[in-house]
Amino acid sequence: MSIMHTATARRTAASPSALRATLDCRPEAASYARQLTSTFLESLRPEPDRSAAEAVMLIVSELVTNAVRHSGGRYCSLRVSADPEAIAIAVGDASRVPPHRRTPDVRGEGGGFGWPMICGMAMATAVTEEPGGGKTVNAIVARRGRATGRATAPAPC
């Protein structure tokens, strides 16, 4: 029995600094997404600084975990791309419900920590409804140092 029934990852031909993956919405998806993202980040030249790489890894893990837990779909998509200034993360899933702030469950049973964490690390976030259904959650992380300003639309942090 395989951990992932369907998982594809490839570098895009049009952009050598991009990763695309389609993952089964299973608990193992977040681990696989982290593995793919880590390999992608290590291949970038110049490499992003440590804080940027850690932020990207955490955001990917959180967004894929949320897609698995809350979307109700069979698959989710992961895209990670880089330019000289930033790293963009996009996770698509079958749900139209955007992420939102809620009171964190300090007992550790119900979450509520992820979206504020993402908003604190990303210099920009956005949620896009997809024409065929579902949504894509986007986050942009500065490749070097902390972002000084941030833009958010339409899911406010």
From TrEMBL:
Keyword set, alphabetical order: Kinase, Serine/threonine-protein kinase, Transferase
Residue ranges occupied by any Histidine kinase/HSP90-like ATPase domain in the UniProt entry: 27-137
Protein name: Histidine kinase/HSP90-like ATPase domain-containing protein
Gene3D superfamilies: Histidine kinase-like ATPase, C-terminal domain
Single Gene Ontology MF annotation: protein serine/threonine kinase activity
Species in which this protein is naturally found: Streptomyces malaysiensis
Claim: Transmembrane helix is one of the keywords in the record: no
Pfam families linked to this entry: HATPase_c_2 (PF13581)
InterPro entries (alphabetical): Anti-sigma-factor_SerPK, HATPase_C_sf, HATPase_dom
